[in-house]
Amino acid sequence: MLRRTLPLILLFAMLGAGGCRTAPVSNVVAAPVTTIQPATMQTVEAAIPKAGNGLGWTMEPRSPGKVEGVLALRTHRAVVDIDYDTKVYSIKYKDSVNLDYDGKTIHKNYNGWVENLDRAIKSNLIGT
């Protein structure tokens, strides 16, 4: 009997684990601004929207040192706040639609979008 039920139990356990579509929200906190020349607010200010726009994000300056990024894909929408100065920048969750955010976890694709944005910002900063 155990020989017959054990494979079924393992199958259902694997299917249940494969259905996990959420992960803890990932924020980028105090990532260093790395540039060839000494960074200025203008160079950082230009690099962030360029990086986001290249990935499909809509980047809106909100105040000096702050940009709001919005990514809308199909029925999903992610909103982040990007705070920056000449030394560091941070990308933090602000809001979302249809990403199963529950206060701690979110659809796992969100973290990938933020990681891609972080990489693009780093790449744009290094080129300045």
Mean pLDDT comes to 89
Strand order of the largest sheet: 2-6-5-4-3
Architecture, according to CATH? 2-Layer Sandwich
**Amino- and carboxy-terminal Cα gap:** 67 Å
Q: What does the oligomeric state look like here?
A: single chain
Total helical elements: 3
Based on secondary structure, the structural category is alpha+beta
What is the H-and-E element order? HEEHEEEEEH
Measured by DSSP, the beta-strand proportion falls in 25-35%
Please tell me the total number of domains.
1
CATH topology, by name, is TATA-Binding Protein
Structural notes for this entry:
The protein is built from 3 helices and 7 strands, in the order H-E-E-H-E-E-E-E-E-H. Strand 3 and strand 4 form a beta hairpin. The protein has one domain: TATA-Binding Protein. The protein starts with a helix and ends with a helix. The longest helix is centred in the C-terminal third of the chain and has 19 residues. Helices cover 39% and strands 34% of the residues. The protein has 128 residues and is an alpha+beta fold.
Topology summary:
Elements: H1 2-18, E1 22-24, E2 28-32, H2 41-54, E3 58-63, E4 66-73, E5 76-84, E6 88-97, E7 105-107, H3 108-126
Helix pairs in contact: 2-3
